[in-house]
Amino acid sequence: GAVVSQHPSRVICKSGTSVKIECRSLDFQATTMFWYRQFPKQSLMLMATSNEGSKATYEQGVEKDKFLINHASLTLSTLTVTSAHPEDSSFYICSARRRDRVGGYEKLFFGSGTQLSVL
Amino acid sequence: AQSVTQLDSQVPVFEEAPVELRCNYSSSVSVYLFWYVQYPNQGLQLLLKYLSGSTLVKGINGFEAEFNKSQTSFHLRKPSVHISDTAEYFCAVSVAYKYIFGTGTRLKVLA
């Protein structure tokens, strides 16, 4: 089945540094990739949607300059948390949309998430 | 390693009929279990979760799910569906810092 690899699974960094999270679709081309954030005991919140070769679309309230998304190819999207602060500590999940062969609709596959802790 | 299986990729059902969306998981350790819903052009929304305690969990929009440890299942049910329930439903397990999602079930409610 389709696999989305997200790396790293856990990262601890110092305040002020930048952290890059990678999301790869291993065996399919992703028409669209999504980035979610989850606060403790809350649901996943969509941060942004990215299409290969174009700028990401950010949800209201998400800082574009803070969370840089690069969708360099049909199999790779990266989220960079710039100048990270403790309030950026959270769980981040990516997902990739694949055009399904049967039925014509697009299925969504998820990475396993990245726990970011900023000290 | 953990895994989640949603055997039904699509489930058509008539309005006001009951529905069950199946989810089975495998894990050698205790997990938390979730059902998420995604409406068209929106992000995921948490329907319900099982962390511990009562095996019957009630969620939003009239959905409920039952955790069955012996069958390693966490099926989602609703006694009477509405057109507005048409969406993609994802089952997920969480262990430590990782989430594993099922491949989703597209519920299509027919008038």
What does this structure look like?
The complex is a heterodimer of chains A (119) and B (111). Chain A is built from no helices and 11 strands. With 119 residues, chain A is an all-beta fold. Chain B is an all-beta fold. Helix content of chain B is 0%, strand content 55%. Chain B contains no helices and 12 strands. Chain B has strands at residues 3-5, 10-14, 19-21, 24-26, 32-38, 44-50, 56-58, 64-68, 73-78, 87-95, 98-101, 105-110. In chain B, the strands form 3 sheets. In chain B, strands 2, 5, 6, 10, 11 and 12 form a 6-stranded mixed sheet that branches. In chain B, a hairpin with a 5-residue loop joins β7 (56-58) and β8 (64-68). In chain B, 34% of the residues are buried. Classes of the chains: A mainly beta (119), B mainly beta (111).
Low-confidence stretches of chain A: none
Q: Give the percentage of residues in beta strands of chain A.
A: over 45%
Task: Compute the separation of the termini of chain A in Å.
Answer: 37 Å
Label the overall shape of chain A.
globular
As a percent range, the share of helical residues of chain A equals under 10%
Major protein interface? A-B, 24 and 20 residues
The count of strands of chain B amounts to 12
Q: Give, in order, the helices and strands of chain B.
A: EEEEEEEEEEEE
Report mean pLDDT of chain A, rounded to a whole number: 87
